[in-house]
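Anyone up for a design puzzle?
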């Protein structure tokens, strides 16, 4: 929530490494996008850290996810590693002159070692940023599991955005923490919006069966923000409220009816003198619908769109553009002149340091809504926010995506499918006093003071909300608990056993396992309770029948002809690999997914399946026509660099 959690975690990692003798650090994040954003921050940190704090000699680094090689920072390190490093170990000191290298190798040098690029060995690198899946694989019955345990046992482990995981993933996370605790691996868990019960579960998982019950009760009962919880072996757990940064934001919250005309009227009124608004929708479909309406009303140039249904290269460009225009004042190139509206999905709610004058959000779980509010007035713009338009110098959030006339409120169907009704109703219930103005502070949510009370009330067990809501909320609670129990049971099918007593053999710990665990669709599906989705590489077929890269790609990458009788040269193949796109859930439904795969396999290019074409071999190819359209499994597809992939059922 802008309080500097990541910087604090890296500082703690230095201290833990010095005390424990750890030789590296692993930072786990929810997604590839957040991992890519964290990687350059780790590199900057490593450049500043003295060698005595985190080991001597060249520091091997790894970006751990399936598309790491497409990251520019990481690929530059890989090229440097191929040029300069010949072995895993070198004799002599880290500053020794080596005749084969045309310069002295500095002890703080960062390299992506070629030997560590294999999917089984990669985690052995000293400093790793990656998706949380890489950590959760430590709890999965799979081959080469001991190698993954070895890789993590010598590091400090940092787990960011710990609130972002469901019961299925939390089951794996708890199992992994139990093993990290048994190995005495220092671990740092970060979240701005973690419920107290979940905080206790994490502490208990790490401390093991011998954890002090009274100390853990103190962990669950503690409140305040920011809050530090420390768990050590043979000592009671401790909790301490620490001084905040001093930055406070008062957010005025209001209901907003869920129709586009009402939204447009409000934005026209509030942005009359200019300003930047963020509209966050819970589904890509609602993003598309909303942006189309707002562009018709305010003009195409006044509305931007971002969501997860862009090819990788376009998504990276979108994130960079957001940071350039709406990032910290000292880093951005200037906000848009006049009014501008960004319509986004959940990709805008975490790990992007962006700042807006006004927020509109679909109703969502309270912790995520608070994360979205953290994008309001995130940075100081003039004294007393005087550089913002007069109407927008006070932070305001409009909550929509529900029928507010019902008792209880009725969230839109797409939100219920994603978050389930229980979490949405609990969120609406704790917001009700602020939305109606009956809270002590009226309509104002104070950040950070109100973060902990709102989260704990929403995720607690005590009744919340008006009396007439309680029957429906109880039904939603029962359905939620049943769903959580089912998730937990499914998660345990392929989990390794909990850490045993010292000296106990681990023979048989991968029996009946899944085989290899890697960062593929199948591998990720083992540690995430999500429907398998198809990922494709997107190219275009010209009128003459030739294939080419998408025409709008920048840096000379657009409109390049792709050979089909020979493997493309590596640079060209890498561009195509950067055009990966995850298809929406409609196309992954039972019955539809098989038809989609059959149709995609008709785009098979035999020359691309050779070992010389590792970027493209085995990948599904989606071919767009000259108008960037295609048809797949009964759906019409259209892709644009401004809106991403649009999917409608074919007539």
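Challenge accepted. My sequence:
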């Amino acid at each position: 929530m802008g309080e500097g959690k990541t910087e604090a975690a890296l500082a703690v990692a230095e201290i833990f490494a010095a005390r424990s003798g750890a030789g590296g650090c692993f930072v786990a994040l929810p997604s590839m996008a957040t991992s890519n954003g964290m990687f350059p921050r780790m590199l900057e940190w490593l450049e500043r850290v003295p060698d005595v704090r985190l080991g001597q000699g060249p520091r091997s680094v790894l970006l751990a996810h399936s598309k790491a090689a497409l990251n520019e920072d990481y690929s530059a390190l890989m090229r440097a590693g191929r040029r300069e490093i010949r072995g895993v170990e070198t004799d002599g000191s880290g500053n020794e002159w080596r005749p084969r290298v045309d310069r002295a190798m500095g002890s703080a040098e960062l390299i992506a070692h070629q030997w560590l690029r294999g999917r089984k060995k990669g985690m052995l690198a000293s400093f790793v940023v990656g998706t949380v899946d890489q950590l959760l694989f430590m709890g999965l019955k799979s081959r080469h599991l001991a190698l993954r345990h070895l890789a993590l046992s010598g590091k400090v482990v940092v787990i960011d955005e710990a609130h972002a995981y469901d019961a299925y993933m939390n089951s794996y996370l708890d199992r992994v923490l139990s093993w990290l605790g048994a190995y005495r691996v220092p671990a740092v868990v970060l979240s701005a919006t973690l419920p107290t019960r979940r905080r206790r579960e994490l502490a208990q998982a790490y401390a093991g069966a011998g954890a002090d019950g009274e100390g853990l009760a103190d962990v669950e009962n503690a409140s305040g923000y920011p809050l530090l919880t420390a768990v050590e072996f043979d000592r009671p757990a401790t909790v301490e409220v620490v001084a905040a940064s001093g930055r406070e934001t008062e957010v005025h919250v209001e209901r907003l009816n869920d129709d586009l005309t009402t939204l447009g009227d409000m934005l026209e009124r509030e942005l009359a003198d200019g300003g930047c608004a963020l509209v966050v929708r819970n589904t890509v479909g609602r993003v598309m619908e909303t942006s189309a309406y707002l562009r018709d009303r305010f003009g195409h140039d006044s509305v931007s769109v971002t969501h997860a249904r862009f090819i990788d290269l376009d998504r990276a460009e979108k994130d960079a553009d957001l940071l350039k225009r709406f990032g910290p004042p000292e880093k951005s190139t200037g906000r848009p002149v006049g009014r501008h509206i960004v319509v986004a999905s959940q990709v805008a709610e975490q790990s992007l340091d962006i700042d807006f004058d006004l927020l509109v959000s679909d109703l969502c779980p309270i912790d995520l809504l608070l994360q979205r509010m953290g994008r309001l007035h995130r940075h100081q713009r003039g004294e007393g926010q005087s550089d913002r338009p007069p109407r927008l110098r006070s932070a305001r959030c409009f909550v929509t995506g529900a029928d507010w006339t019902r008792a209880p409120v009725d969230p839109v169907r797409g939100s219920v499918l994603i978050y389930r009704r229980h979490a949405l109703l609990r969120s609406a219930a704790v917001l009700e006093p602020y939305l109606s103005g009956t809270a002590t502070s009226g309509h104002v949510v104070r950040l950070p003071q109100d973060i902990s009370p709102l989260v704990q009330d929403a995720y607690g067990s005590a009744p919340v909300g008006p009396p007439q809501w309680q029957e429906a909320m109880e039904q939603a609670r029962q359905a939620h608990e049943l769903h959580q129990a089912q998730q937990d049971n499914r998660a345990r099918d392929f989990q390794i056993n909990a850490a045993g007593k010292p000296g106990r053999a681990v023979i048989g710990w991968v029996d009946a396992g899944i085989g290899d665990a890697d960062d593929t669709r199948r591998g990720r599906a083992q540690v995430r309770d999500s429907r398998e989705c198809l990922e494709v590489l997107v190219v275009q077929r010209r009128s003459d029948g030739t294939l080419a890269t998408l025409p709008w790609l920048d840096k000379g990458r657009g409109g390049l002809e792709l050979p089909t009788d020979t493997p493309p040269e590596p640079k060209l193949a890498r561009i195509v690999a950067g055009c990966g796109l995850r298809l929406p859930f409609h196309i992954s439904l039972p019955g539809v997914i098989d038809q989609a795969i059959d149709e995609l396999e008709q785009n098979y290019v035999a020359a691309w399946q050779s070992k010389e074409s590792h970027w493209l071999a085995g990948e599904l190819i989606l071919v767009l026509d000259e108008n960037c359209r295609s048809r797949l499994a009964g759906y019409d597809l259209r892709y644009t660099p401004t809106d991403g992939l649009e999917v409608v059922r074919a007539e």
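A detail worth pointing out: The first helix runs from residue 5 to 20.
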